[in-house]
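Subject: design request, 367 residues
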């Protein structure tokens, strides 16, 4: 009976937890999951695999796996910069599984983004995300009252047929924007705009709207000799706020890039907000280590649970693998973190940058 009680408790925990989207610690390695406007921001084709195991010490742990790809569609001609540029498409598929109760959610989405160039220092990207999900609950692993005998579990199939292999499909819509320069970026996204019905047990339950906002800064640690190079050493602090339904979360931290190695540290929680009667609304502290070689990038992180759940959760781990294809030689542009193009006019020292600054100086002299 004790094992049955644990199963039922964590089944309810799992169902409640699905009121929120699954999350990833390595938010810098999977930005399109939170904001469709980031699709193609690097102006390079790439694919990536992310895998996360959360709360492995609990009977009903979570396993989340995602596969994503981004494809660059158009390029600039020569030294000219188009008003709209860097149009890209992408796709992502996510599977989230609560192992103890066989409660799973599979989500597939297509993404599209394009960019408005405000000036050589500043660009505004906008993106849209169209997808659908399938939420499935398989009760075959649960033990119901009609399966029990004085000697234990009978092995007879439960008559609770309405609870077995139940699933629901739902559409989904999201939008996002990204304002960025070579040294900073500011993003905002709104997902589940249509607030689809996603509940298996209660068809009136809606998937809550999710709003994400983030700010990242870039501090280069090495002077750039050429304008067509990304800094090999820089620091990228990031702050991100997310809210969904009655839950909200703040991520604080950053990464330091010392090519080919990458290191990061994060805090997740809201210490200024109460959790019940206590000022202790915090979730986890995370460490990250990664490495880049050729076109590959690998990352691993570990979350130490600092919430009231304590050490019994055994924390969470996350792995990521990214492959970037060879970039088209005709690309001009800039991205958060430095120049990514072959003939980047927008990065400090580039020809486009010099023309822009010279035009501003001429206007001042005329006045």
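Subject: RE: design request

Done. Sequence follows.
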């Amino acid at each position: 009976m004790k094992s049955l009680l644990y199963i039922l408790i964590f089944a309810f925990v799992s169902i409640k937890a699905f009121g929120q989207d699954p999350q990833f610690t390595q938010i810098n390695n999977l930005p399109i999951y939170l904001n469709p406007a980031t699709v193609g921001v690097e102006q390079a084709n790439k694919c990536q695999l992310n895998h996360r195991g959360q709360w492995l010490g609990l009977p009903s742990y979570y396993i989340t796996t995602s596969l994503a790809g981004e494809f660059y569609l158009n390029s600039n001609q020569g030294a000219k910069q188009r008003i709209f540029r860097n149009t890209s498409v992408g796709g992502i598929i996510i599977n989230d599984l609560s192992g103890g109760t066989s409660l799973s959610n599979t989500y597939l989405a297509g993404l599209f983004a394009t960019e408005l160039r405000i000036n050589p220092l500043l660009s505004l990207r906008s993106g849209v995300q169209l997808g659908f999900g399938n939420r499935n609950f398989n009760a075959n692993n649960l033990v119901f009252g009609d399966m029990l005998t004085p000697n234990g579990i009978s092995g007879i199939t439960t008559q609770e047929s309405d609870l077995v292999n139940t699933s629901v499909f739902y559409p989904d819509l999201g939008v996002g924007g990204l304002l960025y320069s070579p040294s900073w970026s500011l993003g905002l996204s709104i997902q589940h705009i249509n607030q689809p019905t996603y509940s298996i047990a209660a068809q009136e339950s809606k998937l809550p709207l999710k709003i994400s906002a983030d700010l990242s800064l870039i501090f280069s640690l090495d002077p750039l000799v050429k304008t067509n190079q990304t800094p090999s050493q820089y620091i990228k602090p990031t702050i991100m706020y997310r809210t969904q339904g009655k839950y909200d979360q703040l991520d604080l931290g950053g990464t330091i890039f010392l090519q080919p190695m990458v290191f990061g540290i994060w805090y997740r929680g809201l210490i200024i907000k109460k959790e019940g009667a206590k000022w202790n609304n915090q979730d986890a502290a995370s460490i990250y280590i990664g490495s880049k070689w050729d076109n590959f990038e690998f990352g691993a992180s570990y979350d130490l649970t600092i919430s009231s759940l304590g050490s019994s959760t055994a924390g969470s781990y996350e792995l990521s693998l990214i492959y970037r294809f060879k970039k088209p030689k005709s690309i001009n542009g800039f991205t958060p973190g430095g120049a990514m193009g072959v003939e980047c006019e927008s990065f400090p020292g580039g020809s486009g940058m010099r023309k822009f600054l010279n035009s501003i100086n001429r206007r001042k002299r005329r006045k």
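The chain has one domain: 2-366.
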